[in-house]
Amino acid sequence: VSFLMPQKMVSAGKPLAFLSSLVCRRTAPALHWEATSASLVSSAYASLPSCKARESVSHQKMVMSSSPQAATTSSTGYLNAKDAAALDVELMSTPGFTLEQLMELAGLSVAEAIYQVSPPTKNGSNGGRVLLVCGPGNNGGDGLVAARHLALFGYPHVVVVYPKRSSRQPHYTNLVQQCLDMAIPVQEEMPTDLSSFSVLVDAIFGFSFSGSEIREPFGSILSQFKQQQSSSLIVSVDVPSGWNVDQGDTLETGFLPDVLVSLTVPKLSAKKFTGRHFVGGRFLPPQLATKYGIQMPPYPGVSQVMEVTTTPHSQQESAL
């Protein structure tokens, strides 16, 4: 996924939220953004040849162009596991972010994405009930932050399952206490009835997963999630747990979340994801974006996330 800031729109001084329609279309594999007065939908593709302005009778369109360099393989915007880890290290050294800062922004992005796809409601038997399963690493920390924000966003029932608590840094202890202060239960065991939750959040491994098997208790938990794939909305944080960060579901787990929230930039495995896809983490400094070939999405307003959807080549061509 690679993104371009709509310079033409900025220079014209037109707020993104009020455009009746905005589209950037490119030859396949391509990138385009589409917006209506009520929503923003963007579709992202791997390489970026320049696009030409065009108008439609049925839609008012604004088209962005890019330099030829944007079409190179290194500037697709997808990161492999090695580069994603290196970017994290640089974020906490060159710009001087702390782990706590990045985790707070990441968790807020996850919570906002969940709000967009399944806002809190008291209608129905399980409306507004969210279960987050958090792993022992940073992905789990993102989940703990997201849980707190979901409670602040008005979700009536948020539960955290935290089977293996991290003892590496006191910050994780603080995150648990912050959840408890919001009356969010933090427990070690899974609830007996997952069908009572409208949203299940996988914040277990992220891009830290590697190996040929999923260790317990997380293997059993993911099996429970799979059983709920037809009834509950399942959201994965950064990378679906159990997936190879670069190659996707190489273990053939069959775990297919409905929503993926990529943090900072999508990982290579996101190319294999077919559900609703959000990019979050609105904090990347320009010099690091340039170094890693990332062009940040035009986040609307004050939003911390932007939805992107990959479309097959044939569909893109038919839309042109």
Task: Supply Rg.
Answer: 20 Å
From the helix content, strand content and strand pairing, which structural class follows?
Answer: alpha/beta
| Termini gap | 19 Å
How many beta strands in the DSSP annotation? 10
Order of helices and strands: HEEHHEHEHEEHEEEHEH
Which residues sit in consecutive blocks of at least 5 with pLDDT less than 50?
1-76, 311-320
Strand order of the largest sheet: 5-4-3-6-7-8-9-10
What is the 3D shape? globular
Separate helix tally? 8
Percentage of β-strand residues: 5-15%
Whole-number mean pLDDT: 75
Q: What is the helix content? A: 25-40%
Largest β-sheet summary: 8 strands, mixed
3D structure, described in words:
The chain is of the alpha/beta class and 320 residues long. The protein is built from 8 helices and 10 strands. It has helices at residues 7-12, 81-91, 99-117, 138-152, 170-181, 218-227, 286-291, 313-319, and strands spanning 32-35, 40-43, 129-134, 157-161, 186-187, 199-203, 233-237, 259-263, 276-280, 305-308. The longest helix has 19 residues, at 99-117.
Secondary-structure map:
Elements: H1 7-12, E1 32-35, E2 40-43, H2 81-91, H3 99-117, E3 129-134, H4 138-152, E4 157-161, H5 170-181, E5 186-187, E6 199-203, H6 218-227, E7 233-237, E8 259-263, E9 276-280, H7 286-291, E10 305-308, H8 313-319
Parallel strand pairs: 3-4, 3-6, 4-5, 6-7, 7-8, 8-9
Antiparallel strand pairs: 1-2, 9-10
Helix pairs in contact: 3-4, 4-5
Summarize this structure as a short list of keywords or feature phrases:
single chain, 8-stranded mixed beta sheet, disordered C terminus, 10 strands, 320 residues
